[in-house]
Design a protein that fits this description.
alpha+beta, 2 helices, 44% strand, globular, 5-stranded mixed sheet, 116 residues
């Protein structure tokens, strides 16, 4: 991650408690024993670097409530720069998988995957 770009590995991560993901697991004929703890994950090893819109928001599930999350513990950094500054203080923010939303090849929104 830099001030204006992010490098990410493409992974398949499905949450069996989400109806859409569960239907995908069934369509792929993935047996339940292959999604331990309700998640199915396959790492591709393929890395991609994307430019990030400076106004891209980043939503995390703030378990420790370090950033002022409410009852649902979701917290949204309003801009990419806000998130980048927080990562300087807490690299643990980069551990969770995220879903990137792209528009014309540029990341415009990032959301932590496990809770969306």
């Amino acid at each position: 991650m830099t001030g204006d770009s992010i490098t990410a590995e493409h992974i398949t991560l499905l949450n069996a408690s989400l109806e859409e993901d569960l239907q995908t697991l069934k369509a792929l004929n993935i047996p339940p024993q292959n999604y331990y703890y309700g998640y199915y994950r396959v790492d591709s090893g393929e890395l991609y670097t994307y430019k990030v819109d400076p106004n891209a928001s980043v939503t995390i599930y703030d378990i420790e409530q370090e950033y002022g999350a409410g009852e649902d513990r979701l917290y949204t950094f309003k801009t990419w720069r806000d998130f980048a500054a927080a990562v300087q203080e807490n690299e643990g923010l980069l551990v969770q998988p995220y879903t990137l939303t792209l528009k014309n090849g540029v990341v415009v929104k990032i959301e932590e995957k496990f809770y969306h």
